[in-house]
Structure formats: C-alpha cells, structure tokens
Design goal:
Layout: H1 3-41, E1 51-53, E2 62-64, H2 71-80, E3 82-86, H3 89-93, E4 97-100, E5 105-109, H4 114-132, H5 142-157
Parallel strand pairs: 3-5
Antiparallel strand pairs: 1-2, 4-5
Length: 177
C-alpha cells in the first residue's frame, strides 16, 4: 500500500478510536450517574420549584432551587476534586468542561481563553454544589446551571456585556449587579 494511503488510514483509525472512546465514556458516565441516583434515592430526585425556565412548547417547566455559592464550598470542592486541563478531546467534543462526581474529576478545555476557563470552572463548581445537595443537573438543567454560573461570575468579576459566548440555547442572560 502506498505511504500516503497508509497515513490516511492511520488518521481515520485514530479519529474513529477517539470518537468511540468519547461515546463509551459518555455512556459510562450516564449509566454510573443514573445508578448512583437510584442507589441513593431509589429514583431520580425531583427538584422543588425555584428558578423556572419554560422550554418552547408544552413541555414541563424545568426548575432548580436557588443556591448560594460560598468561598468555603468552592475551597472544599477544589480540595476534593482533581481539575484536569484537557487539550484536544474537549475541543473536538465542543465541551468547555465536564464533571465526573464518581471520580471527583473536573475536566476543562485548556484550548480556550483564561476568561472562558474561569467561567467553566465556576460552571462546573455549580454542578458539584447541586450534586452534593442531591440534584442531577444534566440535560435540561444545563441552562439553569449556566444562569447561576454567570451570576456568580458577575459577582466576582463584574457584569459582562451579552455576547454569543455567554448566551445559552434558550435565553441570553443579562447579568446585573
């Protein structure tokens, strides 16, 4: 086989392996998290209403209780969790961050600006705080977590003007102090 073809096949094989690993990794996280919720609560907990965002159409409202993010909690989380600055795979998956409570690991995309990295750490810390209180914040709760993370970021660093980067899929959150 010619050298060019062999290199192309290796590259295709590499990316296929990366994609397969990402799919297996994501599936494993979902199964483990669901199993943990069932083991701890007997079922997935239903959060009480507090923050309400109504999705387009007749779907049910998605809610999470309001929480305070304290410096003490952030310090405890950062003492308990490993923060891994990941190059490549996170960019390929288009993730800024990912938290795995079972391994106490926060993965952050190292291929972004320092400002975005800071926002991502805050976002992942908010996930962990809710998780410690017994709430599953994946899926439809992602926008609520992002809203809270933006408020915390604004409290620490001041408000940011709305941009494409700080708008969620449902609404653009204007942060005021």
């Amino acid at each position: 086989m010619p050298q060019k073809t062999t290199g192309l096949l290796r590259a295709i094989g590499y990316w296929a392996l990366v994609l397969l690993a990402a799919l297996v990794f994501g599936f494993a996280i979902s199964v483990l998290s669901l199993a943990k919720c069932h083991a701890v609560f007997g079922q997935t907990p239903e959060p009480p209403p507090a923050i309400v965002i109504t999705l387009n159409g007749p779907q049910a409202a998605v809610t999470l209780p309001e929480i305070d993010v304290t410096l003490a909690e952030v310090c405890e989380i950062l003492a308990d969790y490993n923060v891994v600055h990941e190059h490549g795979l996170m960019s390929y998956l288009r993730y800024f961050g990912l938290t795995i409570p079972e391994t106490k690991t926060i993965y952050v995309n190292a291929d972004v600006s320092h400002e975005q990295l800071t926002e991502t750490v805050i976002h992942e810390v908010v996930h962990i705080i809710y998780n410690r209180k017994g709430y599953d914040t994946r899926g439809p709760y992602e926008d609520l977590v992002e809203t809270k993370a933006q408020k915390v970021y604004a409290e620490l660093y001041g408000p940011k003007p709305p941009t494409k980067e700080n708008c969620t899929g449902i609404t653009c959150v204007e942060v005021t102090k």
